[in-house]
Amino acid sequence: MKYRVIGLERRGELLLAVVIKQKEDKLDVYLESGEKVTVAGSKAIHFFSTVEASDEKSIKIALADTRDRFSQEVIDLAMLWECLEADISHSLPELLAAYFTTYGEKEAGALFVALSRDKHYFAWRDGGFVKTPPATVEVNLKREKAEKERHATESSVVSWLKGTTSSIDLTAEGVKKMMDALKKFALEGADSAPSEARRLAETLGMDADSLLDLLEEKGIIDPDVNEALYRFQLYSEYPHSAREEAQKIVASSSNLDGRAVIRDSWNIAIDDAETEEVDDALSYHQEDGCHVVGIHIADVACIVPPGGPLDNFARTRFATLYFPETRLPLFPFSLVKKKLTLSVREGRPTISGFFYFDDQGNLVRSYFAETVLVLSRRGTYEDTAGQLGEEPAFRKLHEIAIALRDKRVKAGAVITQLPDLKIKVKDGKVSLQLQTMDLPGHLVVSELMILFNSALGEKFMREAIPALFRVQSKKTDAQPEALNRDDPLYPLKLRWNMAAASLSITPAPHYSVGVPAYTWATSPIRRYSDLIAHRQLIATLHQNPLPYPLAVLEEMKMNLERLEKACKNVEIARNLYWIYKYLKNSNDKVYQAVVSRVLENQKVMVFIPELLQEFPFHAERLSDAQEGRALSLRVIEAYPRQKRIIWGQVTV
């Protein structure tokens, strides 16, 4: 059957169609897009010759063949555009007459198809073709050129990343821009990436983690980059204004007038050997028949003013971030070293808590004060197991710490003393070591920091001072004290029996610490919430208006909770990365594991005590998929970015 081919305009597009039926001024047509529509006869721009077809499929093929045939002739629309006057509507025959000396159906079809594909020079408007203004043509041509260049760049980038092209010019502007977009996708994840990067990642068939591995392999991203910082939106450098403020503070002198100077009594700061941000120190002396324990905390509030660039940055970072390979201080390290950290033989401003105990270890009285501490020396936890631990002053502190712990236990505190997994990275090599927390120094420092925080929390509660309290409830039916400490799953079971602690503006007990009120105030160099507590305390000591009224703290709490969780998660994610990297290179080491949870289809979770970590595993035998079952495992393959591991079971 023969059908007449026409060219028409529909919804701003120039299309070819066949006329199936004509009635008066109405045309039933089949468009090359596959639609059947009825249009007014006036919509027809040009009538071409007929084609033969038997059904819809053959009609569609005939239209495609017609377009291909018309496309064979090259039409220079730019030249035609130059020849015609502006602001005049032209019919297709008029354009044909202006372009061709003689023309027929082939030329008419070629011009129509050219006009349908290239819309830079002419627009169909009110029944005719009108020249596009020169400025618009220039913009459109530039856009088209840029789009073609972008497509070419995208193709070359994809080919290079897939390995089908051996080299690429990474300094080329388009390539660099595209690589930056891919880096953003890989580091921050799909949600934060530009659409161009998402499209490229889809073309490559990669998620953010696999793309990160590829870009690292290609040298686009630094090896072992910490993507967790970006994904938890914590990657940020100190703004220029904060660095500038830090420099001014370092160059200026602090007003320490009126403060008691602590230099003659026995005092010491006890930390890990590598600690550089020394927040706290302890002192001891006897007074009026009492044993006076001094707990001295760096007074950051004296150095960093509220509302300035440094304070604003710290409020949005929340805490110093610690990673196996580095740390990101809450405050610039130059400021920490020269003004904030407690330093031997240098007078530094401190907030001190003085606690008076009688010979029976009972707390008689206590108070807080602004002081200046001239630190006598520093010691490590390991030192307390040796000569330092034998000094009379330390022995008295240890005796008091034991009494404090016993009192907390009677109040319901849960004493854990779990080991800590120390992950260290040097020159890209990972080492893991379980570190016990049962040295005398651990007990002394832990108990006295708890004493300071709980005493301040109770002061805030007693005097109705708005504060950010740390609260923790007891899980229903939880009995952590009944757990068997010799059980290899004890660390996990203890965690499962404990509710998470949280921030609250309403004082309430802290279950595992065993105190009626608790706040964080012993690490202001490293935690913003501690700085808030200090500022509230200082205002109270001077009977000044509180810098953080209740309404302000209510507004801050939600954001600080979010930041605290993000800081914790990014540290966990980074530790896991290095654990998986360590396992990837574990050289056939056999690990002793215990089935901690049974899932389904012989899938279980196993706990490896020497790593303090749970991993998924598929048990080979149904008899092995039982909680408490001891297994010997060897790493087959580990994928640090994906936090995924394949274990092989070792038969002993």
Written overview of the protein:
The model has no long low-confidence stretch (mean pLDDT 94). The longest helix has 35 residues. The N and C termini lie far apart (81 Å). This protein has a seven-stranded mixed β-sheet with strand order 8-15-14-11-10-9-16. A five-stranded antiparallel β-sheet has the order 4-3-2-1-5. With 652 residues, the chain is an alpha+beta fold. 38% of the residues lie in helices and 25% in strands. The protein has 19 helices and 25 strands.
Topology:
Elements: E1 2-10, E2 13-23, E3 26-31, E4 36-40, E5 44-52, H1 56-71, H2 77-83, H3 92-99, H4 105-117, E6 122-125, E7 128-131, H5 134-162, H6 173-188, H7 195-204, H8 208-217, H9 227-231, H10 240-251, E8 260-262, E9 266-271, E10 280-287, E11 290-298, H11 300-303, H12 309-317, E12 321-322, E13 327-328, H13 333-340, E14 347-357, E15 363-374, E16 378-380, H14 387-390, H15 392-410, E17 420-426, E18 429-435, H16 440-462, E19 469-471, H17 490-496, E20 502-504, H18 528-541, H19 550-584, E21 590-598, E22 603-608, E23 613-618, E24 630-639, E25 644-649
Parallel strand pairs: 8-15, 9-16
Antiparallel strand pairs: 1-2, 1-5, 2-3, 3-4, 6-7, 9-10, 10-11, 11-14, 12-13, 14-15, 17-18, 19-20, 21-22, 21-24, 22-23, 24-25
Helix pairs in contact: 1-4, 3-4, 5-6, 6-7, 6-8, 10-12, 10-13, 15-16
